[in-house]
Each structure stands twice: as C-alpha cells, then as structure tokens.
Amino acid sequence: MIYIDANEANVPHPVGSNVFVQQLLTALQKIWLPSDPQITLLLNKPPRTSFFKTLSWPIETIPPSFFWTQWRLPLYLFKNKPKIIFTPGHYAPRFKPKGTKSIITIFDLAFLHFPHYFTSKDLWQLKLWTKYSVHQADLIFTISQATKTDIQSTYSIPSERIKIIHPGVKWSDNNKVEQKTLSDYKKLLLKNDLKKKKYFLFVGTLQPRKNIANLINAFLQLKTDYKLVLIGKKGWLFEKEIAPILYPAIRSKRVIWLEFVSDSLLPFFYKDAFFIVLPSFWEGFGLPIIEAGYFSTPALVSANSSLTELVNDKKLHILPPFSVQQIKTSLERMLKLKENEYETLSQQAQERSKKFNWLKSAELIRKQLLQLH
C-alpha cells in the first residue's frame, strides 16, 4: 500500500507547487500498472476542485486539518501501516510506524536565503518542519540541481538520497482551442490595449521573493510603447511590499495585472508575449520559463539559483544585485534585439522546453516508489 498526501493539489486555483502535484499525479496515473501496489490519496478536507474527478485512485478524507501532518496523519498511518507515505511537498508526517518509508518533495529553500520575505509564523514553520522532514525522509525528490545542492549543504544529506524530478509542460500539440476561449482572449487584449509581441510577461505568485516591485519600477523607467503584464495571485507580504508599487503602476495603464488566468487562456499570453521575465531573487525551478518556451517565447531571468540551469545564455541574464537598474538594463537590451536574433532565441526556447516531460518525470517517480516498496 502506498499513500500519497494530495493536499497540495486540493486548491481551486493552482499555482507553482499546486500545478506540480496535479500534473505529477495525472502523469503517474497514466503509467501506473494494475500489477503495481495500490495507491490511496489522502486529504485533510473534502476535494475542493474537480481535478480529483480525473483520477481513479481512491481518496480518503481525514479531518480535522489543524496541524494535520503533526498528529492526525500520524494517527492514521499507525492504524493502517502503509509501506510508503509519499508527500509531494515539504512536510512529512511528524511520526510514522516502523517499516513505513517516507518520501518528500523539496521545491526550494528560499526561506533560508531570504527569511525577511516571509511572515514570522510561516518562517518558523518552514524552518522547523522542513528540517525534521528532510532528516526523517528515506528519499527526497527535488526539482533542480541548484535545490539538490542546497539540500545537501544545508542538511548534510547524502547525494544518493536526493533525486531530481523536473517539472514538465502541461499542454500538448493535441490541445484544441475553443472558439469561446479565443474570443475571451481577444476581449482581454482589447480591454487592456495589448498587442501581440508588444508586452513583457510575468507569471507567478506576487510575493517579494519574485522581485516584483523592482520589475515594475524598472519597466516604468523605460521609454517604450511595450507593456508589462503580470499574471498571478497575491502572495506573502503583498499589501506591505508590492501593493504600494503595483496599484499606482496599474493606473498608468502601462502595467496590467490579471490576478487569475485559466489554463485555457494562459497559452495565448505565453505565445503572444515578447519575453517572459523572471527577475526573482530565488527560484526552485522556474516553470513559466519552459511553459513560455513551449510557445517559442524566450525568457529573461535572474542569474541565480536554478534559473541559469534553464537559461544559460548570459545575454538573457539579469545580473546581481537584481535591482531596478539591472532589470532596466536587461529589458532595454531585449528591446534592442534584431529580428533574426529574436527568432534564434525563440527557437532555442522551444528546443529547451521539449526536454521537460511530465510522463518522463512520472516514470522516474514510479521507479523509485517500486524500489522502496
């Protein structure tokens, strides 16, 4: 018996790690054989999204959700004694029965590098709970070499206990575009006075670690008719760190903020953007880079963490300290690209994106699960 803590996927509007878990479970089910061990998904509250209707694995809802991994999940494990508890997230159950093996997933350790960008409560929990989870785990999945190196050096974990599982792209050439979706997209373009290949795009949660305030300030200093489109929900410290910069920028009509865009609409924005921009102070992977690349849109990224693994061309790097001036200089450099230079970057972005595949990642996870079972 294998239990999977699926709470990270139980989110109505998935982003980041939520997308990772949803796509991973979808791909894993496609390759899971009838002869493989039985899988049961565990939730701390009833399904909040139709995503779970796409899966055939049984679901056990185990309330209450309060400090679930600290006491409620352990009680359930001691009663049922599974061979494996797989957590596609940072927090393993605080206790587990003898003979039950634990697998966790670490996306990044940004909270250790930039503690001032986290609330005191979240920082306390991330530090303590991640530490015990890492040391307790029989196996750790992570999403980039940069994060693997970080885990090894921070927690003194042997390399063989950490496996890299890259995210993939959730769209395929077989996806059909509904006429209504196309119409909705055109309405958004018209409403916000957006033109194809005439805007920079940021996709991700709006939180200080993403360096949003500096990106906005840098963009507003440009003398250009291009626009900046931000797609993402409010994150940690939004009201304190980002809102004072973002709201005046929106009034200028040069910066557009779309808090939520559906999976059916997002490809249009990726395809029509001039560049995807990730000026982050730290990233565990940088999923928008390969998603945009699937639609041949190149990426401009900070020269740090995992981002240089995905984009190794130095002219596409924002240099330290990733301040307003560095971002402005990089944006200006992109605007000066010749047409043939831009086409080359677009082709390279698409080729890079093809290397990342959810089914391939799911195969690696299946192999590890079967070895541990």
Structural commentary:
The protein is an alpha/beta fold and 373 residues long. It folds into two domains: 2-168 and 357-372, Glycogen Phosphorylase B (Rossmann fold, 3-Layer(aba) Sandwich), CATH 3.40.50; 179-353, Glycogen Phosphorylase B (Rossmann fold). It contains 14 helices and 13 strands. It has helices spanning 17-31, 68-80, 110-113, 120-136, 145-155, 179-191, 212-220, 238-251, 266-272, 287-294, 307-310, 324-335, 339-353, 358-372, and strands at residues 2-5, 39-43, 59-61, 84-87, 101-106, 139-142, 162-164, 199-203, 227-231, 255-258, 275-278, 299-302, 317-318. The strands form two sheets. Strands 3-2-1-4-5-6-7 form a seven-stranded parallel β-sheet, with helices on one face. Helix 7 packs parallel to helix 8 (238-251) and helix 7 packs across helix 12. The chain is globular and about 65 Å long. The model has no long low-confidence stretch (mean pLDDT 94).
